[in-house]
Amino acid sequence: MSPTDTDHLAETIAAAETTLSRIPAVDHHCHGIVRGPLGAAEFDDLATESDWPSPSGGDVFDAPVGLAIRRLCAPVLGLPRHCTGAEYIRGREALGPQQATERLLRGAGIGTYLVDTGHRSADITDPGELGAITDARTFEIVRLEPLAERLARSGVRPGEFLTVFAERLDTELRTAVGVKSIIAYRHGLDFDPSRPGAPEVRAAATEWIARCRTAGTWRLEHPVLLRALLWTAIDAGKPIQMHVGYGDSDITLYRCDPTRMTEFLRATADTGTDILLLHNYPFVREAGYLAQVYPHVYFDTGAATGYTGPSSLAVIRQSLELAPFGKLLFSTDAFGLPELYVCGARLQRAGLSRVFGEWLAEDAIAPEDADRYLELIMAGNARRVYGLEAA
């Protein structure tokens, strides 16, 4: 590449960066953050999807996500870029949790949060608390399985389980803007795509509730009931988020390939209910294919962008290969750590700037189209799919 070409590429990347800097992002899938101080062990636990402590000689600061935190978050906290993990924790502790959280969230450039409240909700901020820190808009996403578990614990009769669940869901969706399914965790995406009939649901509810009462735990894993919840959500008509791919050790990764639920997507294509595939690593290309082919399918690279750190550009490139630009959304999947908001948002902007800058330099795209697509990806698509303009 000649010096002139290099200068031109730098200019076009800078133009994309300028466009992105003006867009208050809509994080369409995230969680709350912890309220109190964090030591090194607690920080490590929140910065990985693993359920086990790091082996001797390794911690999250020596992983891709740790590199991203040390490069992107350290300066936000007044620390040297690329400082050591120990230096980062000490500097964070010196600021205190409130100031560190405020600086980090305000440095992420996120104007709207869609918050999944179904996982460890007692340990983290609720949507209102999260939004108050940065004066951002917040909306709730209802997780289907915990809602069903709470219902079962309340003593509902098996024969009324699905009817009462539909009523509860309808009540929740008077304020929430969407739902989330973790059938990928509880079963896998290779589930029977058909809608279960009432007798089948009644028998499954009878079996599951009796088993839970005996065991004293209320974890919904019954495949018939998981399908019933999904179809009830389809009937409710609000967007359905579905975990895909990368996650903690509770999943079996090969069963989280989104193409494994192709028949379900075919069966729901004409329902008018949108389905949003979350994270998708390492199945980003598969998700892009499904988003291109099916009218109601959308996707993001969610947690994958933040956790791949310096390699996130490759993930973002894949997300831009095939699907229409109106089908790709932005999310962080941040949980617990405000650092994950910063890493997810800044790496997404950096990756989009690089790819669109290259396209602009090659005259593969018009500047006005680039601006429009960047706004759609970072905010506009989420506003449209979730109906946020009217909210």
Notes on the structure:
The protein has 17 helices and seven strands. The chain has a seven-stranded parallel β-sheet. The relative contact order is 0.16. The model has no long low-confidence stretch (mean pLDDT 94). Helix content is 51%, strand content 9%. Helix 5 runs parallel beside helix 16, helix 14 runs antiparallel to helix 15 and helix 14 crosses helix 16. With 391 residues, the protein is α/β, with parallel strands linked by helices. It is globular.
Main attributes of the structure:
391 residues; alpha/beta; 9% strand; globular
Helix-strand layout with pairing:
Elements: H1 3-21, E1 25-30, H2 40-46, H3 64-73, H4 85-95, H5 97-106, E2 110-116, H6 127-134, E3 137-143, H7 144-153, H8 161-172, E4 178-181, H9 183-186, H10 198-215, H11 223-236, E5 240-244, H12 262-268, E6 275-279, H13 284-293, E7 297-299, H14 302-308, H15 312-319, H16 338-361, H17 367-385
Parallel strand pairs: 1-2, 2-3, 3-4, 4-5, 5-6, 6-7
Unreliable stretches (pLDDT < 50, length at least 5) are: none
How far apart lie the N and C ends? 48 Å
Strand order of the largest sheet: 1-2-3-4-5-6-7
Count of separate DSSP helical elements: 17
Q: Tell me the major beta sheet.
A: 7 strands, parallel
Please estimate the helix content.
40-55%
